[in-house]
Amino acid sequence: MAIIGSIGTKTANHVYSQQQIKQIVQAIFDYPERKWERLLPVFDHAKIEKRQFAVDKEWLMQDHRFPERNELYIQHALSDSLDAIDACLNDPVFLKEKVPFEAIDMLIFVSSTGIATPSIDARIMNARPFRSDMRRMPLWGLGCAGGQWGWHMQKIGLLHIPIKLALSYVVRCAA
Fold first, then answer.
1. Which CATH number fits domain 65-171: 3.15.10.40, 3.40.50.2300, 3.40.47.10, 3.40.30.10?
2. Does the annotation mark 144 as catalytic?
3. Which residue in 23, 42, 61, 121 has a CA-CA distance of 20 to 30 Å to 98?
């Protein structure tokens, strides 16, 4: 039987209310009033109170090319993933004792918001003392359903592959 034994999270450095994001979007995009009348109610009805960003709103309102945005994705995806993984493996609320990196049999990485070569999961492997024979499963391009698919693949891995301990993490870091 597969269980969730611990959870680790990392909150982004910049948190804005849905109303603040609505104002930022209006400042960034030059749409006719009729289009705004159709689009803006989405912000009011989305049931989202706050959104997290790796960068501040001033940065968001400037024009940035893909290489710069993607480099920020790599930096934040790596550092935030490491923070969340460390929190997950060391959380005294969920765990009786810390889980050593070497105990992890499978690492599942889910993201749809950036491109990295080497991949973020490969960078994670080099940043922490995971075993070299640990299985890796990067999942990319699945959008909002990616996290659920990652958990599904983790369950399959735990049930059908001879592994005992899997670690999955999801990165949502759009810039």
1. 3.40.47.10
2. yes
3. 121
Backbone φ and ψ for 160, nearest 5 degrees, come out as: -120, -10
User: Domain residues of the chain, as ranges?
Assistant: 15-59, 65-171
Look up the pTM and report it: 0.82
> What is the rounded average pLDDT of the residues 96-114?
89
pLDDT at 88: 94
Query: What type of residue sits at position 93?
Result: V
User: Per the residue annotation, which of 47, 117, 144, 162 is the catalytic one?
Assistant: 144
Locate 102 and state its tokens.
């070497």
List, for residues 60-104, the tens digit of each pLDDT value: 889 999 999 999 999 999 999 999 999 999 999 999 999 999 999
Confidence of residue 2 (pLDDT cuts 50, 70, 90): low
